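Q&A log
Question type: sequence-to-structure
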Amino acid sequence: MTSDVSATWSPSWRLRRHRVALPTGATAAYADLPPIAGGQGRDAPVLVLLHGLTNDADSWADTAATLRRELPGTRVVIPDLRGHGQSDVPSDGNWRHAPDVEFAMSQLAADVTSLLDTLGVGAATLAGHSMGSLVALEAALAAPDRVEHLVLVSTTGDARQTPFLHDWLRADVIEGRWRSALEARGVTWLPDAMGLTPLDADPDAVSWMQSFWNLYPFTPDRPTRELAERAARLPLATWLGATQGILDHNRLADLRSLRTPVCALWATQDSFFREGDQRALTGALSRAADTAGGTFVWKQYGRRPLAPDGMQTDDLGHNLTWDAPEQVAIDMAAYQRGGAPTGTWFRSDAPEDPRLVVGDPVQAAPMASSGAVARGRSATFSGGDVPPISRRGVLPG
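Response status: OK
Response body:
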């Protein structure tokens, strides 16, 4: 049922994977990048990078390259979460009947801590983008002794009403277009369709992915065919289950017990997790600092606000590890070394060049924190209140 062009495609993986069977029932594929200086991998600090919905470890490849230069003594582990990339779904087949259970954020987090056990890693820093950030937070809440620090990129504490996921992806695309197409051919949605793919529902799914899903407005010239081909071949159980897992995520109240130090990075044109989500998140993290003694720092990328229709147009948005991978790595490394990201305000150079990322050397980035952050300034959470950039900057080094 797939198109001829896509049928001849084979993946071109950027990161070499290892594979291991986990006690949770999943078989995990993961990249394991040893330190480039300063000793053996098993004795080094460990940084785990967790990808977003329908992505895989390769989505962190550019960021990881800079991270390894910035933190040469750190071991970097990047798994494909279950049902993504080269990682399999569990062999018991329950994902066909209950994908929402098998792809719950808590279940993905259990896979991550199980992988740490298998690798002999006692504790690590967990960094996640989008869905990966929710998985990282789940792991820290469930096993705080295993998580030294959290880095949450494009995140939220409550994803239940995320418009693009709730109204569009799940309702209109997965449960609408794809389900209707398969049921019209006599395929039972649960359990039979769960082992099929978007290509089985729509022979033009790869083109659809490029136009509507693997769409990166900030970097329109970067090729997305590879990403679209991979996403179109993921099981529908992954699409449905992981999407529902995100929509079931609400940890704002539970953050009161969080002791793990947190660094959160967010961009103003994030179409998924928006300004209101950030107000709620930083408020919850502030309360956690008061009640549980944790610490946090939140940093804003971008200056221009999200368009009224919720679409990213001319500044950094949800896919920061794609739009600004080196800048994210620099901030993550600064946080690992000194407890705070840089004060550089990374943003687009709009209106002059809306596809160029610059780092303003004069105006410090808006930040919120549980204590004084000398590198930044207090966030206002309002694009209209952010003062204009006084001069053009460039990314140092």
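Response note: Residues 1-5, 381-397 have pLDDT under 50 and may be disordered.
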